[in-house]
Amino acid sequence: MQELRVRGSSMAQLARDLGVTQGSLSLISRGLHRSKRLEREIAAALNTTPEALFADRYPSETSK
Hints:
The chain is mainly alpha-helical.
């Protein structure tokens, strides 16, 4: 999540802002755990959508 650094933040700061541990956020960002809420929060911090950021977790409508 180097893009967070570019935006003047970090995974640690985002975790503090969201009230979760940095480890939890890391597991979600790496795809080892799922949390749609936190996926939305990470995407929002990067000014994108969960579908764009985590494309492998959100199959497109055309692939159904």
